[in-house]
Amino acid sequence: MGFSDIKKLLIGDPFPTSQELHERLDKVRALAVFASDPISSNAYATEAIMSVLIVLGSGALSLTLPLGLAVAGLVLLVVSSYIQTILHYPDGGGAYTVAKDNLGTKPALIAAAALLTDYILTVSVSVSAGVRAVTSAFPELFDLRVWIALGAILIITWVNLRGVRESGTVFAIPTYAFVAGVLVVILIGLVRYFGWFGAAPIVIEAEQVAAHAQLAGFAYIWLLLRAFAGGCTALTGIEAISNGVQAFKPPESKNAAITMVAMGLMAMSLFIGITFLATHLSLVPDEAESILSQMTRQITGRGFMYYWVQFFTAMILFLAANTGYQDFPRLGSFLAKDSFLPRWMQNRGDRLVFSSGILVLAALSSLLVIIFQADEIAMLPLYALGVMLSFSLSQSGMFLLMGKIAHLKPGESIHTNVTVIHYEKSARLKQAFNALGAVVTFVVFIILVFTKFLEGAWVVVLLIPLMVIGFNAIHRHYERVADSLSTTGLSDENVTKVADVVFVPIADIHRGSIQAISYAKRISRDVRVLTIITSPEAEERFMRRWNRFPEITSDLMLVLIEYDYRDVLAPLVEYIAKISAQEFSGQLTTIVVPEFIPETEAAGFLHNQTARRLRASLRQYQDVVVIDVPYHIHSMLRDAEPAGESAGEPGDEPAAQQGAEPEA
Questions:
Q1: Per the domain annotation, does 652 fall within a domain?
Q2: Which site in 7, 177, 408, 608 is 20 to 30 Å from 339, CA atoms measured?
Q3: Spatial distance between the Cα atoms of 270 and 312, rounded to a whole number of angstroms
Q4: Which residues pair with 639 in a beta bridge?
């Protein structure tokens, strides 16, 4: 079974390009694919606020609700801004496209770097949080948390490689089951807390935690800002839909906007409900058990509902990583198209997904999981920084775009570099919302930087500019390649000439080397066969075998290079480089290398190592062309000569003494 058979078995038959429209997502699947991250953040966003406030003692946890409401207001503000982005940039690209069109290349690259960083963290944090939900219910699995996280990444990677539509179908059930389960728990909790319908009241067992510090003034405000910054993890993934508008079925913009509204309302309903109940039930953050687990257990007990919520919490936390899997490859394709990332990242795989981007994301997120030992709390200080920066840049770009629209008259429209904008009656009002959103999200970004800097946020602060430098370096490389390949001013005089000489390096005379020599004679009259001689015995044996085929070798130049060391490549490369420079300066010289093709791929490791090293060594010379002449081993086995003075296996004793495989 070959590689292509294994690939087909794992990810399925290739899709034709014409099937792309069929593979797009309806609103139900799209909500599961793109909204799993902001919805799943409800499992830890409230806890992130409480984990900071607990420093002031359990009494300070009452501040969780007002801080949560502030976070919810920010979410709704950002959602409204991204709905505008979706409608005005239907081709997708989100913050990167908006910034590039309105702010310029540098801000766009900063937004892209920030988002790519956030998507990597989305995968790492989500699966680590999922592992925590599992170990909360089954503490005996705690020591296996890293392996569970890596296994989850592997499964999500596999599902995404199978296609967008298929991943949407797989992830829909856990997403909606989580939402339904938590909503039921919240409703039961509210009914029992307020005593509606004669329901049994909840027994509140308030745990008193003493304050670790007495803070006042600036220190107190600083702590509140840190708690608010922790809650802002609820905003991660909101921009995902704006990046992937083209993943929706037509009409793309309308369906994406509707899905964005549904996501915002659903996520914030859960967040406010959990925050309200966690505050009024006097829950205290515990490293061994999540706030959501405590809340569910206290409201419903350890029955069916508890394990339903815990199971699907773990599932959606694992699958929330899918938001990163959708947007990292897609954003990477936009950057690759603009020559800021390797061009191969814009290529779609067999199942019409950006396979290379998916695999890169899986590798980077797995590395983070290993480094942080699947501890999402340790990674949270790095989280949300990138997304807040991209929010601010995106809304700043939309502010400028709305300013252009506000100057249009009814019926007028203009083309920007990316989109077409039309007159809108409410442009000034929308511009005001964008201004507010840009300022607020930038302030939150600054808060995150300063409050989380020493806890690890410095890594993201350093990484984003380094990524931008890398983007520009890649772009300059592609510009140099384009300039080098340009045909502008090209004429016959400055086209590189091809020399009428062919070098054939061999170590022995056998069917493979004879085939290579015969090929070389068909393309040139000046064929020079090169071989390394390491002893008189080796020379005598080689010449005896050479003279057996006078009809092939009589009109060739045989170059015997005597060498007293083991590395036979050095004299070969030195000779080729010397002759090319002296006799054929400024011309292309051709090297024909015989290469064995074994009967199996595994057997390939036993052959051609010298040939590969020779090709790699010759690449540094710009006027050298290397041609491989394959010889299939099964043909040699089928037509082999009788034993005796035969060409023999390439590695027979005399050839082995020469220190080189005959294919080189």
A1: yes
A2: 7
A3: 14
A4: none
Indicate if the pLDDT at residue 362 is higher than 90: yes
Does 431 share its domain with 522? no
User: What is the domain-level CATH number for residue 558?
Assistant: 3.40.50.620
- Longest C-alpha distance within the chain, in Å? 108
pLDDT tens digits for 270-282?
999 999 999 999 8
Tens of pLDDT, residues 492-544: 666 678 888 999 999 889 888 999 999 999 999 899 999 999 888 989 999 99
Other CB atoms closer than 10 Å to residue 39's CB: what's the count? 27
AA letter at 154: L
Residue 248 sits at φ, ψ, to 5 deg, of -90, 155
Residue 82 burial by CB count (10 A; 0-12/13-18/19+): exposed, middle or buried? buried
One domain for residues 453 and 564: no
Give the phi and the psi of residue 500 in degrees, each rounded to 5: -90, 50
Whole-number Å distance between alpha carbons of 388 and 444: 7
> Does the residue 208 lie in any domain?
yes
Asked if residue 282 and residue 421 are part of one domain, the reply reads: yes
Peptide bond just before 251 cis, omega within 30 deg: yes
User: Beta strands 624-632 and 420-422: pairing type?
Assistant: unpaired
**Does residue 556 contact residue 528 with C-beta atoms inside 8 Å?**
yes
- Specify burial of residue 404 (Cβ count, 10 A radius: 0-12, 13-18, 19+): middle
614 conformational bin, left if phi > 0, alpha if psi -120 to 50, beta if neither? alpha
**Contact by Cβ (8 Å): 259, 34:** yes
Residue 560 pairs in a beta bridge with: 531
CA–CA dist 44, 233 (Å, integer): 8
- Which residues does 590 contact at the CB level (< 8 Å), separation at least 6? 498, 499, 501, 502, 503, 520, 523, 524, 625, 626, 627
Q: Helix, strand or coil for residue 532?
A: strand
Q: What is the pTM of this model?
A: 0.77
Residue 415 lies in a domain: yes
For 34, the enclosing helix (H) or strand (E) is helix 27-34
Distance in angstroms (rounded) separating the CA atoms of residues 171 and 325: 12
Residue 160's CATH number: 1.20.1740.10
Q: How many domains does the chain have?
A: 2
Give CA 501 to chain center in angstroms: 46
Q: What is the per-residue pLDDT across 81-129, written as a single tens digit (0 to 9) for each? A: 889 899 888 888 888 999 999 999 999 999 999 999 988 988 888 888 7
Q: What is the DSSP letter of 92?
A: -
Do residues 205 and 84 both lie within one domain? yes
What is the Rg, in whole angstroms, of the alpha carbon atoms belonging to the chain? Answer: 33
Question: 462 is in which domain, residue-wise?
Answer: 26-474
Distance separating alpha carbons of residues 561 and 527, to the nearest angstrom: 16
What's the pLDDT at 493?
Answer: 65
Question: Following DSSP, what letter does each residue of 357-373 receive, concatenated?
Answer: HHHHHHHHHHHHHHHTT
Helix axes 385-406, 427-452, angle to 10 degrees: 160
The residues near 95 (Cβ < 8 Å, ≥ 6 apart) are: 85, 111, 112, 114, 115, 239, 242, 390, 391, 393, 394, 397
DSSP category for residue 60: G
Residue 480, in any domain of the structure: no
Residue 539 and residue 456 share a domain = no
d(CA 300, CA 451): 36
